[in-house]
Write a structure and sequence with these properties.
The complex is a heterodimer of chains A (about 280) and B (about 325). Chain A has helices at about 5-35, 65-100, 105-120, 120-135, 135-165, 165-175, 180-185, 190-215, 225-235, 245-270. Chain A is mainly alpha-helical. Chain A contains ten helices and no strands. Chain A has one domain (about 5-275): Orthogonal Bundle (MetI-like fold). Chain B is mainly α. Chain B is globular, with a radius of gyration of 24 Å. The chains are: A mainly alpha (about 280), B mainly alpha (about 325).
């Protein structure tokens, strides 16, 4: 393994790069519609046009501005991902902490329940749940939160199992601090590093799942654009206008890359063992 | 050994039970009515609907419906398709074989790519290591359906003479079949190879720092002997585990990739069924896929114990 100072420098560089990308994503979510030069549904006579001063990334099959649609469509794609991962994180923290800290039968039951979810290929389960509940924004968020909770819970539980035996926990108990306080204030902070890394990776995976579901027509309902459905639409015309494919493809990759870079940066900075 | 295998399989049962309940509830807790979907239209009289409900056993308590469904599934009867009115099992099997082939080819590719890059990264260090790790990070961020779309775009634009949507069954043209699987398998394998590569790298580095490798070097054994007999053998254990665990990702991914390359596997079957609200098929696919993943995980555990004598589950 490389020495600590070098890991730190590399971690800082990765976090800086990831931070810049994250700022772009957050801008899309928070003020996206203000940034878009045109409306998402605004058509023009110029269909499948190449890049120009008017339309930086060209136009789609009915003359809508691709850049505007990417910015506006990114908003819903990212919003679903962020909210779903936030829910999965809270659920994972609670389940992992309770499972690891309480142990015994509680641990056994929680872990077996999570094993059930774990047994499904993530994407297949997501498809089945969305197909069953119907593809609405709310159902997508619920689905994705469910499929990614087990991985997060496991990442919390693992280190909790060892940290709860450390001396400071025993010390806290001996001075009469309640179990809940110990778990939250004296155990949780010590297991948070791997959780941060896993959360970042989960965000990257979630962007994959959201866009893939939308790509297959199981995403947020039309006519509002999103990256997955844009890629699917562009596929139909890709021989005529290859650039319309590149736009959404690049957006998906960049968003996903943001969280891979952040995860790598966090791993170096927080000294989480590399996988 | 036999006891361990039996133990592992027994431990799998409660999870399998949970999986089957999830698959059952998912399809019965639908917003649309199960009986209406079976009729294929909502323009039917309440009497007809009642008859269909009765024939499907929907007028009985839910737990009885579940038991009936699961008992039939255990006998290989996965229900009857609403659309074709044929048994699902018979329709699913040939498609499952196609998906299994795609998954297997992609898995082997990922193992070869991930193993090679991970080993190179760990052994050569320096620039090679850096290049592999950067490439891995980038690859990890490119979803397989984006890779597949770009491959389709690239070949459509520059090599239109190569038909990429020309799927042929294995039994009519084995060579043509394998060729048609190549591009889909690559799109599927790239992302998975990253995980294998990272794990191979970590495992080889870990083993390289062990005392017995130093002893082997000190004894003056040839580099190739050390690599084969000491390093790879011991680094293999975690790599096997990781590769096995990637099966779920491969199986899930192949659903997507099949729909892009129009390969008539389980994934395409699933989408046709979702579009047609053919719930027994969706239910069967979810159950079968999860069962396969569980079984492979058990096999991985067993393989793990065979390779590494220190592991015991007894």
């Amino acid at each position: 393994m490389s020495d600590a100072p070098r890991r730190r420098t590399r971690g800082q560089a990765l976090l800086a790069a990831g931070g810049v990308l994250l700022a772009v994503l957050l801008a899309i979510v928070l003020i996206g519609p203000l940034l878009a030069p045109y409306g998402a549904a605004k058509t023009s006579a110029d269909s499948l046009a190449g890049p120009s001063a008017l339309h930086w990334l060209g136009t789609d099959s009915i003359g809508r501005d691709v850049l505007s649609r990417l910015i506006i469509g990114g908003r819903i794609t990212l919003l679903i991902s962020f909210v779903a991962v936030a829910i999965a994180l809270v659920a994972g923290l609670i389940l992992g902490l309770v499972s690891g800290y309480v142990g015994g039968g509680t641990d056994l039951i929680i872990m077996r329940l999570l094993d059930v979810v774990f047994a499904f290929p993530v994407f297949l389960l997501a498809i089945a749940v969305v197909a069953s509940l119907g593809p609405t924004v709310r159902n997508l968020i619920i689905t994705i939160a469910i499929v990614y909770t087990p991985a997060l819970a496991r990442v919390v539980r693992g280190p909790v199992l060892s940290v709860k035996r450390w001396d400071h926990v025993e010390a806290a108990r001996s001075v009469g601090i309640g179990e809940l306080t110990i778990a939250v204030r004296h155990v949780l902070p010590l297991v948070i590093s791997p959780v941060l890394v896993q959360t970042s990776l989960t965000l990257s995976n979630t962007i994959f799942t959201v866009t893939a579901l939308s790509f297959l027509g199981l995403g947020p309902p039309p006519p509002d654009p999103n990256w997955g459905s844009m890629l699917a639409e562009a596929r139909q015309f890709m021989e005529l206008a290859p650039l319309t494919v590149i736009g959404p493809a690049a957006a998906i990759v960049l968003a996903s890359l943001t969280f891979v870079v952040l995860a790598n940066g966090l791993r170096e900075m927080l000294d989480v063992a590399g996988r | 050994m036999i006891r361990m295998v039996v133990m592992r399989l027994l431990l799998m049962l409660p999870i399998l039970l949970g999986v089957s309940i999830v698959a059952f509830v998912l399809m019965r807790a639908l917003p649309g009515d199960f009986a209406q979907a079976a009729a294929g239209t909502n323009l039917i009289s309440p009497e007809t609907l009642a008859t269909i409900r009765h024939n499907l056993g929907l007028d009985r308590p839910v737990w009885q419906q579940y038991l009936q469904w699961i008992a039939a599934a255990l006998h290989g009867d996965l229900g009857t398709s609403f659309v074709t009115k044929k048994p699902v099992a018979g329709e699913l099997l040939p498609r499952l074989a196609v998906t299994a082939e795609l998954t297997a080819i992609a898995g082997l590719m990922a193992l070869a790519m991930g193993g090679a890059t991970g080993l190179a990264s760990a052994r050569l260090r320096g620039t090679t290591d850096w290049v592999v790790r950067v490439l891995n990070s980038v690859l990890l961020a490119v979803p397989n359906f984006v890779i597949a779309t770009l491959i389709v775009l690239l070949f459509g634009l520059y090599f239109p003479e190569i038909g990429i949507f020309n799927y042929v069954p294995f039994h009519t043209d084995p060579a043509g079949n394998l060729t048609s699987m190549l591009l889909p398998a690559i799109s599927l394998a790239l992302t998975v190879s990253v995980t294998i590569s990272e794990n191979t790298r970590a495992a080889v580095l870990e083993v390289s720092s062990q005392d017995y490798v130093m002893v082997a070097k000190a004894k003056g054994l040839r580099a190739r002997t050390i690599l084969g007999n000491y390093l790879l053998r011991n680094a293999l254990t975690p790599v096997i585990t990781v590769t096995g665990l990637q099966l779920a990702a491969l199986l899930g991914g192949s659903i997507l990739i099949e729909s892009i390359f129009t390969i008539p596997g389980m994934g395409q079957y699933l989408f046709d069924s979702i579009a047609a609200r053919d719930y027994p098929v969706i239910q069967a696919i979810v159950l079968v896929a999860a069962t396969i993943v569980l079984l492979v995980n058990v096999l991985v555990d067993i393989a793990y114990a065979r390779v590494d004598a220190r592991v015991s589950y007894e």
